[in-house]
Design brief:
The chain has three helices and twelve strands; from the N terminus they run ββββαβαββββαβββ. Strand 10 and strand 11 form a beta hairpin. The two termini are 20 Å apart. Bound molecules: flavin mononucleotide (FMN). The site of flavin mononucleotide (FMN) has 25 residues, from strand 2, strand 4, helix 1 and helix 2.
Length: 205
């Protein structure tokens, strides 16, 4: 039952890297798995540009989102691709120990990681990595996935590990972020409220 997955708890994170160019995306699949040495895992969809760039660079950083995060950061990093735009451009960007970009505002901790193994997981790749540096940034409350969904009413796009398909009678799905407009007819010039794009595909069950 899909409902069982709703009881899994997780935080919300921004993973960043630099292969041929800087890339980053929102994830909720980051976890510490050992303390000696300090090892972490995360799962990235193979089609996400950030995943492709980490396969080249073999390094990444993860910042922990706080409850004070600007929701526009989640929209930008969670619903569009680094392939087509420089997602970091509007922000005051800092660089970590391995010279990877990160945003400090709205984040509570920073982890800089070297990839040790890549594990196939269907649509996703699980990256197992060793932490090069773990930095505490401030004591703001970390944002949980539950708070994001239930309080901020945030959405989860199809490429996220935790995405759940919903069956609806009729509607239109945003080609970019997967947002669903419910209704028989899509209004002319309708703009997606999540990612701002205008291309939709009719859903047929
Ligand atoms: C709440 C939330 C959780 C997400 N979790 C993951 C995740 O764990 N793994 C993943 O690959 N993508 C996840 N995503 C989706 C990516 O952030 C999204 O596909 C992004 O547009 C990829 O950008 P990129 O192509 O620049 O890498 C999540 C998005 C949101 C909003």
């Amino acid at each position: 039952m899909l409902k069982a997955y709703n009881n899994l708890t997780s935080g919300m994170y921004l993973v960043g890297t630099k292969g041929d160019k800087e890339a980053g995306c929102i994830i909720n699949t980051f976890e510490q798995v050992a303390a000696t040495p300090e090892m972490v895992v995360m799962a990235l969809n193979k089609e996400n540009y950030t995943c492709k760039e980490i396969k080249k660079s073999k390094k990444f950083n993860v910042t922990v989102l706080s409850q004070n995060i600007d929701i526009n950061i989640i929209s930008r990093f969670g619903f569009s691709s680094s392939e087509f735009e420089d997602k970091y451009k509007p922000y005051s960007v800092k660089y970590d120990l391995l010279n990877l970009p990160y945003i400090e505002e709205g984040m509570t901790s920073l982890f800089t990681v070297r990839v040790k193994e890549e594990i196939e997981a269907g649509t996703h790749i699980v990256f197992l990595g060793e932490v090069s540096e773990a930095v505490w940034l401030n004591d703001e409350e970390p944002l949980t996935y539950k708070y994001y969904k239930e309080v901020l009413k945030g959405k989860t796009p199809p490429k996220a590990s935790s995405y759940q398909k919903s069956k609806i009678a009729s509607g239109y799905k945003c080609d970019t972020c997967g947002y669903i407009y419910r209704g028989e007819t899509l209004p002319v010039d309708y703009v997606c409220p999540i990612c701002g794009k205008t291309h939709f595909t009719k859903i047929t069950n």
